[in-house]
Specification:
alpha+beta; Glutaredoxin; 4 strands; globular; binds glutathione
């Protein structure tokens, strides 16, 4: 059975990582049996990030690569009924969510001084003293440096949240009044979207990103729908 390595539940969601939530939804969507192994340290994974899986004794990282593997080797089809154009749109929105909007979520968690104590206690509360005195700040610096390297964190705070708000508006416009991104049945994009939105809408952080998300009743409804379908124990 596939072992899925991911952190424990947090922020009123299955866990704090959009990528982990996406992958767990994909496994459920494809009815592939899996066992969760609680893992909070990304450094234990093959790419230094979570989630990762163990399959037939080998470790595999990156939710996107794992998604491809599940389709190629485990009979999953996360795009049933979609045209080639739909698949292209799905990929473009996936990148919008994971390579851009996710960074605004990270900003709201790691840059905002008001949220930092929540993040620090959640991720590092179990780290033994004296490491707990300096490791959290070290990691915070690393996350911040990565986002400055990307470029987004060089922008004014208001522009960063405007980017998040614009991206969410584009997603809301695309979902429209459909129950799922492409209609009546969920596909990979719904898993990706839910991973992001659960961390924004369900989480108890009061940030401009959350304010922007809840302006879209269809995104709020999508989050509730996905949560009820895939994580009924959390509703
Ligand atoms: N492209 C990766 C991204 C995974 C990712 O960024 N995971 C975050 C948690 S949400 C992580 O492990 N961060 C730790 C780090 O970057 O050191 C995927 O799709 O799995």
């Amino acid at each position: 059975m596939i072992k899925l390595f991911q952190p424990p539940p947090a922020f009123n969601a299955a866990n704090p990582s959009p990528f982990c939530i996406k992958l767990e939804v994909l496994l459920k969507m494809a009815d592939i049996p899996y066992e969760i192994i609680v893992e909070s340290d990304p450094r234990n994974g093959p790419t230094g990030k979570i989630p990762f899986i163990e399959v037939d004794g080998a470790l595999m990282g990156d939710s996107g690569l794992i998604q491809n593997f599940l389709e190629a080797e485990k009979g999953a089809n996360f795009h049933t009924g979609l045209s080639e154009t739909d698949k292209a749109i799905s990929l473009a929105f996936t990148r919008l969510i994971e390579e851009h909007t996710y960074l605004v979520l990270l900003y709201s968690r790691w840059f905002e001084d008001a949220n930092w104590p929540i993040i620090r206690d959640l991720f590092f509360g179990a780290v033994p003293i004296p490491l707990r005195w300096f490791v959290p700040n070290m990691i915070r610096k690393k996350v911040k440096a990565g986002m400055v390297g990307h470029g987004i964190a060089r922008l004014p705070r208001s522009s960063i949240y405007q980017i998040g708000s614009d991206n969410l508006a584009a997603l809301a416009a695309f979902v429209g009044d459909k129950p799922f991104a492409f209609g009546e049945a969920p596909t990979a994009l719904d898993a990706t979207l839910y991973g992001l939105l659960s961390g924004i809408i369900d989480a108890d952080f009061d940030t401009p990103l959350k304010h922007a998300a809840v302006q879209h009743p269809n995104l709020v409804a999508h989050t509730a729908r996905m949560r009820a379908k895939y994580f009924p124990e959390l509703t």
